[in-house]
Amino acid sequence: MISAIDRERAADLLRQFTDAGAQPVETEILQPAGTLLDLYGEDIRGRAFTTTDPLTGETMLRPDFTVPVVQAHMANGADPARYAYAGEVFRRQEIDEGRPREYLQVGYEVFDGSDPAAADAEVFDLIARAMAPWGALPATGDLGILIAAIEALTTSARRRAALRRHLWRPIRFRRLMERYTGAIPPTTTRSVMLAQLQTTAPETLIDAAGTPVGLRGTAEIAARALSLVEDAATPPINRTEAEVIAMILNMDGPMAAALSPLRDMAVDLPGLDGAVDRLEARADALSRRGHDPAQLSFAPARGRSAMEYYDGFTFTFAAPTRPDLPPLATGGRYDALTAVLGAGRSIPAVGGVIRPGLLGDIA
């Protein structure tokens, strides 16, 4: 149950965002499931409440606001634009997590490609000022740096795509890196299958396996088998490049202190240069708004466990006296999402959300 106090707090935060120039928007509580499934795959089912309607098909109770706001903007919005919203979102929780399945979310989204670094700083600064009465601790990240490092690897396009796809699944990502660097050998089962595929067409092996099980057809299974053969013939990712990925994943310190080491890493992975330039521009923009990059906590991989649309700047605000609580506020840049939902159009975009109910827990 959402309390009246939480609703009042949400209304006050929404006023702060509209006073900053945002246009208030609303979205439907029931969202088409297809869009979210296309974006995140079946994983989203474990985090959302789904239902089926005879007329509209499969739908989900709104798991967050960003996707429907992006959809509405890309369909009808003019650039640049700033939006604010407040309302309920719904997430499935494990029984022992003790977290609410329904809670309020207040957010601010900026669609503006004129100066992405300035837009990042604008959103961060607005959320920081809203969080100031609670003494919330900020922390920042930049998934764009990790993505740029992946894209710069001298390996196959298929391997880069797999690493990019599993960026938000840390355990799976680590296992892929171990396999692609040759740190762990292929399983016995895979080795046997690869040996058979050297002399036998995959369709022949599929027919010999008996009655098909599952939704994949013969052509899809055969294509997957041939991709495994191709991958087995791909040389391992070289040690120096793998070490750069590991250093980026482990980096954690002040934002300003990250610039020099990242410039050094760009010598081994030249594709990092652009991402580091964007980080430096963002640090300058934050400094102009009164946030000292020498004091801001920064870890490039921060945000990997959040919603999968973040692909650049990320940030969180945490309760200093309640480490048991989720972040009070989160946000980040999601440029790629606008391209996916834009039907040929795209625009740089960044936003942030606050959970008013958590603020009541530390008031």
Automatic annotation (TrEMBL):
Gene3D superfamilies: Bira Bifunctional Protein, Domain 2. Pfam families: tRNA-synt_His. GO terms for biological process: histidyl-tRNA aminoacylation. L-histidine binds at D64, F65, T66, R91, Q105, E109, R302, Y309, Y310. SUPFAM superfamilies: Class II aaRS and biotin synthetases (SSF55681). Keywords: Glycosyltransferase, Transferase. This is ATP phosphoribosyltransferase regulatory subunit. It comes from Jannaschia donghaensis.
